[in-house]
Amino acid sequence: MSLFLFLTVVQALVAAALVGVILVQRSEGGGLGVGGGGSPSGLMSARGAADFLTRSTAVLATIFVLLSILLAAMAVNVTTGREIDTSLERTVAPVAPSDPLAPAADSNAAPAPAPPAETPAQQSDDPLAGAAGQ
Fold first, then answer.
1. Which residue ranges make up each domain of the chain?
2. Among 13, 35, 68, 73, which is disulfide-ready with 46 (CB 3.0 to 4.6 Å)?
3. 73 CB-side CA count, 13 A
4. 98 neighbors 52 (Cβ within 8 angstroms)
């Protein structure tokens, strides 16, 4: 696993270098625009800087793609040992009561009596209460 971590760090460094090299280039392919004096041939000319940046972009991109493939292959080898559980059997843990202040249910206790039903005489005189039931 340490090789995987090392290659991941190298991948991040290559990605950062690739972004940096791409951002330094000119959009028209003119490179850094270094020139203005000195020899027109060589690395320090505009043409030489553009060629260097183009080659370094190609090399970094190739390294990035190869590292991506290598890391993907290593990740597949690590995760293939797992199996999918296709059984429907599940164990259920006992559920705690939702109200911690409520007394524990006693299996020997008699069930609580149901409240008596209201008769029409016990209904309130509120006119809205009668309208809701109709």
1. 2-79
2. 35
3. 8
4. no
* Per-residue tokens: 74: 């290593």
Residue type, 47: R
Give me 64's structure tokens: 């990035």
| 39-74 pLDDT tens trace | 455 555 666 777 888 899 999 999 999 999 999 998
Write the DSSP string, 50-115: HHHHHHHHHHHHHHHHHHHHHHHHHHHHHHTT-----------PPPPPS-TTSPPPPTTSPPPPPP
Interior/surface letters 53-89, b for 16+ CB within 10 angstroms, e for the rest: beebbeebeebbeebeeeeeeeeeeeeeeeeeeeeee
Query: Does position 107 have pLDDT exceeding 80, yes or no?
Result: no
Q: What is the mean pLDDT of residues 103-126?
A: 60
Q: What is the pLDDT of residue 91?
A: 73
112, exposed or middle or buried, with CB in 10 Å at 0-12, 13-18, 19+? exposed
Could you tell me the two tokens for 96?
Answer: 């705690």
Spatial separation of the C-alpha atoms in residues 11 and 68, rounded to whole Å: 8
